[in-house]
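ERR on first pass: missing label on line 2. Operator R.T. fixed the label and resubmitted. Corrected input:
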Amino acid sequence: MTIPGDPSDLRLPAETLLAEPAPEDEFLPVEEGVDPIKRGPSSQFADIRRRFKRNKLAMIGLAVVGLLIILAIVGPLIAPYDPYEQNLLNTLQAPSADHLLGTDELGRDLFSGMLYGLGLALMVGIGVMLGSLFLGLLLGAIAGYLGGATDSVIMRITDIFLAFPYLIGAIILIRTLDPGRQSIFPVVFALILLAWPTTGRLMRGQVLATREAEYVEAARSIGAGGPRIVLRHILPNSVAPVLVYAFTGIGVAIVSMAGLSFLGVGVPPDTPEWGRMISQGFKFFTVPGSSYLWVFPSIAIVITTLAFAFVADGLRDSLDPKLR
Amino acid sequence: MGKFVIRRVAQAILVIITAMLLIFLALFALGDPFASSGDKTVPPDTQAALRAKFGLDKPLPVQFLVYLKNMFTGDFGIDFDQRRQVSDMLSQAIPATVRLTVVAILLDILIGVLAGIIAAVWRYSFWDVLVTLLTTFAIGIPVFVIGLSLRANVSGELFFPTVPRSAFGDQPFWLIEVLLPAFTLAVADAAFVARLMRGSMLEVLRADYIRTARAKGLSERTVIGKHALRNSIIPVVTYLGIGIGALLGGAIITETIFQYPGVGLLLYKSILNNNNPVIMAITAFGVIVFVAISLMIDILYAYLDPRIRLS
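pass 2 clean. output:
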C-alpha cells in the first residue's frame, strides 16, 4: 500500500509495478547493427539492460550515481577539514577559498561535512535496501510458496507494519531501540523493518503467479525438492520486479533518514548528516547571507535523490516498456 | 458480501489492536519515562508517586486493557508535561489537520488529474514530456526541501502569513494559512496522481469501448471526458483514499516547518519533551484512521467487483 503525504510519499506503490500490462500495440524499435534473429534468446535481465541503455535520463542518473559513489569513497581523502573539528573563531563564514562552502555555527567546514554526509547517506540507503530485500525476498517467497497458515501469519505481520504511518513508525521504533541517540544502526534497522513488508508482498504476489507455471510443475514432477524449486525455478522468474522496486528503496531510505534527522530523531547529534545540517542551518535563515547553510545540503540531497529516481524510473520502464 | 465484510472488519480490528499493543509496549514498557537520566535526578518516592499518578504501577496487561477501555470512552489520559487532557489537545489539533488534508487532496486532484489527462491524450507531445519531467522532479525532491524553500522565500510575502504566526492581532483566515503547507504536501502527491492517471488513461484509451464510442461519432470531448475518464480514475481514487488516511495521521515534517497547529506539529512537540501519552494517542489515531480508510476502500472494491470477495 502506498502512503502518500509527507516523506512517506516516497514509498512508491509496489502495485504499480505489477500493473496489468496493456496489450502491446507497437513494435519496439529495432536496434541498429544487431540482427534481431542472430541476437538469439535473451533473458529478462538482458532485455531490461538493453532497454535501460536506450533511456537517456536513466543513463544520466546512472552516471551521477556512479560519480556520487566514487565521491563518497574518496571523500575522506579529499575533504579539506575534519568534519567534526570546531573552530569557534571562524563561525558562520560565508563560502570562500578557505572554506569552499563556508562554515557552520561551530566553525565546522560545510564542504567536508557534506562529503561525509554523502558517504553516510549512500551507506544507509544501500544498507536499508539490501536488508529489506533480504527479509522481503525470504518471507515473501516462503509465504507465496507454502501458502496456507504460514502465508496468513506472514501477511498479517505485514499488515501490522503497513498500518503505521511511515515516519511515525520509524520515530517510535528508533526512540525505543536507541533512546539516547547513540548510533546510526537503529535508524537503519527501523527503516529495514518498515520497508520489507512492501517488498515481501510484491515477492509473494510474484511467487503466486509463478508457482503454477508449467515449468514448475515439470520440475515438481521429476521430483525436485521445495528449496530447489524456489531457488532455481521460481526465484529467477519472479525476482526482477522485486529488484527494481528495491532499487527505488535506496532513494526512499536516504530521504527518510534525512527527514528523521531533520526532526531531530535518528542520527546522533553532531553527525555530519544532510538532514541535520539542513535543520541546523535553517535556524539562521533570518540572518542575511546565511542561506548557504541549508541550501547546499539541500542541493546535495536533491541531486542524490533525483539521480536515484532517474535510475529507478528507467529500470521500471525497462521492466515493462509497454506502459511508457 | 456480508461474510467478506465481517472477515475484513475482524482483520482490521486485530491489526489495530496489535499495532496499539506494540506502540504501548514501545512507549511505556521499554524504558522508564520517570527514571533519572543525565543531570536530572528523580528521588525514588517521587518516581513512585508519578508512576501511581499515571497508572504505570500496575502490571502491564492491566495498564493496556485500562488504556483500551478508556480510549473507547474518548479518554486518552493526561499528558506528562502540563497535565492536560490528551483528548482536548487532540480535538484542537485534528480540525486543523483535516483542513490541511482537504486542501492538499483538492490540489492533488486539480493538478494531478488534469496533468495526467493532458499527458495521456497528447502522448509523446511537448506537454507529455514536460509532465513526465516535472513529475520526476516533484517526486524526487524531498518534502522538507520544498517546504523550507517556500517558507524562506514565500511566507510573509504577498498575502501569505508569516511563520510562525504572530501571537497578537488578527489571526489569518484559515484558507490562506493552509495554502503553503497544503501545496508543499501536494507537490509529490499530485505528481504521483498525474503518473497514475496517465498510465491508466493510456490503457483505457486502447480499449474496444473507446473505439466504439469514437466509431459511433461521439465528440472527442465526450469520449475523453466521459468514457475514458470514468474508467481510468479508479487507481487515482484508491491512491488518494490511502493518501487521506496517511495525511490525517499527521504530516509531521510539513506541519513542523510551517508551525501549522495540527496533529503533526503536536506529535513533533511531544517527541521533543518525551510526552508519551500524547505520542501514544496520536500514533493510535493515525493507525486507526489509516486502517479504517484502507478497509473502506477494500469493501468498496469488493462491492464493485464480485471477484475480489471470493478470492
